[in-house]
Amino acid sequence: MIKLKKIKLPYLIIGIMIIAIFSTAFISIWGSYRSFNNFLIQDKRNTHEEYTTELVTRINNYLHNTIQGLNDSTASIVENMLDNDFLIQEVERLVMQNHLFDSAIIVNKEGSVLASTLSKVEFHDEWRSLEGVVQTTRGPIISEPFQVSGDKSVILMANPIFSKNNEYVGFIGGTFDVTENIILPMILDNDFDDDVSILIVDSKGKIIIGEGNHKRLQQVVSGSGVLEKDEKMSLVGHSVVPLTGWGIFVQRQLDKEDVPKDIFIKNLIFPLLPFLLVVLAVITWFAVKMAKPIHQIALLIEEGVEIKGVQPFEKVEAWYFETHLLRNELLSREAFIHNRLKELTDQLVLDPLTGIINRRGIDEVLDEWVINDVPHAIIMLDLDYFKSVNDTYGHTVGDEVLKDVAKNMLEEVSEKDICCRYGGEEFLILLPYSTIDNALAVAERLRVKQAFSENLCGRPVTLSAGIATYPTMAKTPNQLIEIADKALYKAKKTGRNCIQVAGDFSGNVK
Prior knowledge:
alpha+beta
């Protein structure tokens, strides 16, 4: 396996700082460039919005004046509603005087055409249907575009006619062909730049008029007349004509680069270079100075200097808080380790006779399991009639029997289970993450093994056992041991050489 060479702390700090400086400088310069560029674009956008608003105002005023011209004709028309020649002259005059209209029409309240510059074949059902709209609204209307013949699409502008008694008697209207696109040149008087594209859509999003590169402008307008994002189009202004609800979209292309990068670099980046070099030199010196104490400590540890040799660590230049704290901690660690070793020596957890964990070890293990919420089971064992063994054969033989029991326990449990001597002839087996069934199986194997084991007594020495589990039966180690002890007591009372699982004992333990 290839062993990679570790980077030393001074080089690491210098590298990180260099990356941070240049990254910050790059982000700052690029952000400045983008901010200035966005400022110029925003300034052009504001100008463009003003142009769009002005265009909408001019269109709205032109349409309003045209409607007013129709309204001015109603006074003479209402006095001559029965004079057919007068009505024909009036519609012809309207077409001649208003350059927007290519036809005019007068309709009575029943929807009958009284006079028109249109031939019969050019009449459309839309004329008559609009009569009801005018009568209902009792005010001027401007219709949505509708087809009349072939590809011809027209818009009707109509004004109601009222009698002297304010009774509705019909309307006078004029139409213009939107396919010929005469309204924008007429309104603007050709007063727009070549790089400007204009698109007018009705309230339903249908395209009415386009001027300039309006086909490209259509790519940023949805069917509902709402602008969509288009990275290729630089500026697109949008407004609504109040009189008609038409949407006006005006597009103007920007230069590809508003701020030349070479000028920006020359005026901003070059003056910064000397400053960056000075900062880099200062940071390099500071990084070496800051990393030196930690580097010295690392070298001392790598060379195997024992902490009790305080002289080398005292020479470390701990000039800032963290290294000062680290050096002092290393100097005091030796005393701490020695004190801790002494405590551990004084608190040996192994039973000297059997070699398994003693009562102190049991308490430490169970406390740790409870703190960490480790579910577990315990088996409490007691040798049957063990007092007679000591009385008959002596304590030396009794000790050997106890050793044999510990040996049998270790042979019957798994690696994760812990065998313990609780005291005298009582033993415990601690089984982490174990169920009652598993604990019962372990106890039964051990009971059988013990019953048939040979020993210095020349007769079997059997055992009885009680089983309890945490946390289903108890909440503390002491409760658990008490419950297991009650189960063991029941096993003794029911004939010995048997196993009892704790049942109704948990409720009686406090």
